[in-house]
C-alpha cells in the first residue's frame, strides 16, 4: 500500500521526536559532576578547597563597632542599594542575609537610592531590618534622565535589534538608565561626597557565610580598589562597539594604561573565540557588579571620568545595552593595578542564577563549589578560570 509522501515525512518526524525524547529522559546526565569538570584551565574549582579568611591583620568586631559614636573603628564606607519601592520584599531578604552574616557586627550605614521618592513603608521596613543608620536618597534628574544627545528614534530602532538578539531588557529604557547611572554617576551623588568605600547590594541576593572581619577596613589596609565574587562572560550582542570605543579611547590616552593591567583577561580569545569575535576583540569577561565592594576614588579618577564621558558620548548605553559590569571591568582591567583587585572567595553569594559558595564551616545554605543552579549550559559563562590564569587568586 502506497503511503503519501507527506505522511511518510510526518511519520519520520514523529519517530525522530520520540527518540529525542527518550534520549532526553534516559540519556547521559547533563549535570556536570563538579564545577571543575567543565572548566578548561581550571582543573578544580578553588571553592572546593577549604577557605578561610584572607591573610594578614584583620579588624574584629570586639570593640569600636558599636552604634553611633562608639563606632570609632568604622571607616568611611556604606552599604549601597539602588532599588525600587516595589522591590521592598527582596530588599529586606537581602538585608536580612547581610545583616545576619556581617553587618550586625560592624553596623555600617545603608544608603538607598531611587529615581522616585521612597515610600514611608519602604523606609520603615528597611529601618527595622538593621540597627545601623539608613539614608534614603533621590537621584538628581540630571543623573537619571536620558542625555540630550541620545536620539529617541535611534533608541527605538536599536531596541528592536536588541530584542531580535534576545538581549534581556534591551527595550526597557529604565534598564539602560540604571546601567548608565551605575557606570558613571552613582558616586557623584552629593550624599556620597564624604564616602570612600561602598558595598553594592541588590534586592533578592543571598549571603551564606559568616564574615567576622571588617571588609571595608580590609580593602583600605591592603590597598584594594575593587572586590568581586563572580566573574562572567557577557552577551556579546549587548556590547558590539564597547571594545572598539575603548580602543579609540586608549589611542587618545595611552598614558592611562596601568603597567600591571589585566589586558590578557580582557582580550582572551582562546576559551570562547566566538565571544571575542562578536564583541570585536573583547573577551566579554567581567566582574559581576551586582556584588561589588570598591573604593570610589577609582571611579572619581581623571582616567575613569574621561573614559566614562567618552563612552557616554558614544551612545552605547542606549543604542546598545552596555552594562555597568563590563564598563567597570574594562576600566579596572586597563587603568588599575590588577593586584588591587580582590576575589572575596570567603563571601558566599548568590544573585540568580550564579553562586560563589566556598568550602567553609562558616557557610550555610549553599552547595559548596556550585556555580549555578540553572541549566548546565550556564557553566560555560564562568570566566574565573581566565582571571585566575592571567591574574591570580589574590
Ligand atoms: N530605583 C530604581 N532602581 C532600579 C531601576 N531599574 C533597576 N533598578 C535596580 O538596579 C539593580 C539592577 O536591576 P535588576 O532588575 O536586578 O537587573 P538584573 O540584576 O540585571 O536582572 C537592582 O538593584 C534594581 O533594584 C529603576 O528604574 N529604578
Ligand atoms: C571620606 O572620604 C571622602 C572621599 O574620599 C573624603 O572627602 C572625606 O574627607 C573622608 N572622610 C573622612 C572622615 O575620612
Ligand atoms: C599600601 O600602600 C601604602 C602606601 O602606598 C604602603 O605604605 C603599604 O605598605 C601598602 N600596604 C600593603 C599591605 O600593600
Ligand atoms: Mg538583579
Automatic annotation (TrEMBL):
<keyword id="KW-0328">Glycosyltransferase</keyword>
<dbReference type="GO" id="GO:0000032">
    <property type="term" value="P:cell wall mannoprotein biosynthetic process"/>
</dbReference>
<dbReference type="Pfam" id="PF01793">
    <property type="entry name" value="Glyco_transf_15"/>
</dbReference>
<dbReference type="GO" id="GO:0005794">
    <property type="term" value="C:Golgi apparatus"/>
</dbReference>
<dbReference type="GO" id="GO:0006487">
    <property type="term" value="P:protein N-linked glycosylation"/>
</dbReference>
<dbReference type="GO" id="GO:0016020">
    <property type="term" value="C:membrane"/>
</dbReference>
<dbReference type="GO" id="GO:0006493">
    <property type="term" value="P:protein O-linked glycosylation"/>
</dbReference>
<feature type="active site" description="Nucleophile">
    <location>
        <position position="292"/>
    </location>
</feature>
<dbReference type="InterPro" id="IPR002685">
    <property type="entry name" value="Glyco_trans_15"/>
</dbReference>
<keyword id="KW-0812">Transmembrane</keyword>
<feature type="transmembrane region" description="Helical">
    <location>
        <begin position="7"/>
        <end position="26"/>
    </location>
</feature>
<protein>
    <submittedName>
        <fullName>Glycosyltransferase family 15 protein</fullName>
    </submittedName>
</protein>
<comment type="similarity">
    <text>Belongs to the glycosyltransferase 15 family.</text>
</comment>
<keyword id="KW-1133">Transmembrane helix</keyword>
<dbReference type="InterPro" id="IPR029044">
    <property type="entry name" value="Nucleotide-diphossugar_trans"/>
</dbReference>
<keyword id="KW-0808">Transferase</keyword>
<keyword id="KW-0472">Membrane</keyword>
<dbReference type="GO" id="GO:0000026">
    <property type="term" value="F:alpha-1,2-mannosyltransferase activity"/>
</dbReference>
Amino acid at each position: 500500500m502506497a503511503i503519501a509522501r507527506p505522511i511518510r515525512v510526518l511519520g519520520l518526524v514523529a519517530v525522530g521526536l520520540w527518540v529525542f525524547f527518550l534520549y532526553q529522559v534516559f540519556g547521559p546526565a547533563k549535570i556536570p559532576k563538579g564545577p571543575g569538570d567543565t572548566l578548561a584551565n581550571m582543573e578544580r574549582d578553588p571553592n572546593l578547597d577549604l577557605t578561610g579568611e584572607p591573610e594578614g591583620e584583620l579588624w574584629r568586631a570586639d570593640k569600636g563597632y558599636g552604634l553611633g559614636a562608639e563606632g570609632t573603628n568604622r571607616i568611611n564606607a556604606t552599604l549601597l542599594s539602588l532599588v525600587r519601592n516595589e522591590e521592598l520584599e527582596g530588599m529586606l531578604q537581602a538585608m536580612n542575609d547581610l545583616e545576619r552574616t556581617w553587618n550586625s557586627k560592624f553596623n555600617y550605614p545603608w544608603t538607598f537610592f531611587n529615581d522616585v521618592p521612597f515610600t514611608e513603608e519602604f523606609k520603615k521596613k528597611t529601618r527595622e531590618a538593621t540597627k545601623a543608620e539608613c539614608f534614603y536618597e533621590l537621584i538628581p534628574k540630571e543623573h537619571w534622565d536620558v542625555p540630550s544627545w541620545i536620539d529617541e528614534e535611534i533608541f527605538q530602532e536599536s531596541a528592536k535589534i536588541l530584542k531580535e538578539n534576545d538581549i534581556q531588557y534591551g527595550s526597557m529604557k529604565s534598564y539602560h538608565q540604571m546601567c548608565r547611572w551605575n557606570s558613571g554617576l552613582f558616586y557623584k551623588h552629593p550624599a556620597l561626597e564624604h564616602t570612600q568605600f561602598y558595598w553594592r547590594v541588590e534586592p533578592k541576593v543571598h549571603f551564606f557565610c559568616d564574615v567576622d572581619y571588617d571588609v571595608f577596613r580590609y580593602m583600605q589596609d591592603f590597598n584594594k580598589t575593587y572586590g568581586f565574587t563572580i566573574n562572567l562572560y557577557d552577551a556579546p550582542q549587548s556590547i558590539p562597539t564597547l571594545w572598539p570605543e575603548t580602543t579609540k579611547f586608549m589611542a587618545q590616552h595611552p598614558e592611562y594604561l596601568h603597567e600591571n593591567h589585566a589586558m590578557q583577561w580582557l582580550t582572551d580569545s582562546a576559551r570562547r573565540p566566538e565571544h571575542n569575535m562578536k564583541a570585536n576583540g573583547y573577551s566579554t569577561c567581567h566582574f559581576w557588579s551586582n556584588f561589588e565592594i570598591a573604593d570610589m576614588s577609582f571611579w572619581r579618577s581623571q582616567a575613569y571620568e574621561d573614559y566614562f564621558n567618552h563612552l557616554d558620548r558614544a551612545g552605547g548605553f542606549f543604542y546598545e545595552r552596555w552594562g555597568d559590569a563590563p564598563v567597570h571591568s574594562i576600566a579596572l582591567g586597563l587603568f588599575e593595578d590588577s593586584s588591587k583587585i580582590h576575589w572575596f572567595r570567603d563571601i558566599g553569594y548568590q544573585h540568580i542564577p550564579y553562586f560563589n559558595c566556598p568550602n567553609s564551616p562558616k557557610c550555610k545554605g549553599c552547595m559548596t563549589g556550585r556555580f549555578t543552579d540553572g541549566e548546565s549550559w550556564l557553566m560555560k559563562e564562568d570566566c574565573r578560570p581566565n582571571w585566575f590564569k592571567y591574574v591570580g587568586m589574590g
